[in-house]
């Protein structure tokens, strides 16, 4: 069964898309925790960080390059931002399609 994010990728569910190429899509979070809260998602369905295969290394590297590009585009690169990826239920993951939260635009408290 397709994940929520695959449905967004396939345009079955609307989203505020801010970036897309053949491998990666990025869209605004529907419940933002900061002025900028974007989800950066590889189009390949990889359920969790634990499921990243050696063959996915370039794809995950590309995801991080997109995060950096978006951070600059949203002018987060100077003051700073946070990148978060939750893994499995105890880690807070609710959609089992690996994704990265780009969060910024305000002072963020320390987490760890």
Automatic annotation (TrEMBL):
UniProt signal peptide: none
Motif, Histidine triad motif: chain positions: 97-101
Record-linked Pfam families: HIT
Active site per the UniProt annotation: 99 (tele-amp-histidine intermediate)
GO molecular function: catalytic activity
SUPFAM superfamilies for the chain: HIT-like
Highest taxon, organism lineage: Bacteria
Stretches assigned to the HIT domain: 4-112
Protein's recorded name: Histidine triad nucleotide-binding protein
Species classification: Bacteria, Fusobacteriati, Fusobacteriota, Fusobacteriia, Fusobacteriales
């Amino acid at each position: 069964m397709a994940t929520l994010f695959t449905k967004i990728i396939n345009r079955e569910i609307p989203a505020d898309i801010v970036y897309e190429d053949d491998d990666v899509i990025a869209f605004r979070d529907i419940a933002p925790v900061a002025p900028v809260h974007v989800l950066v998602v590889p189009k390949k369905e990889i359920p969790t960080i634990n499921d990243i295969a050696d063959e996915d290394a370039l794809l995950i590297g590309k995801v991080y390059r997109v995060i950096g590009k978006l951070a600059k585009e949203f002018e987060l690169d100077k003051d700073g931002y946070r990148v978060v990826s939750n893994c499995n239920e105890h880690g807070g993951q609710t959609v089992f399609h690996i994704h990265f939260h780009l969060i910024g635009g305000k002072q963020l408290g320390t987490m760890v």
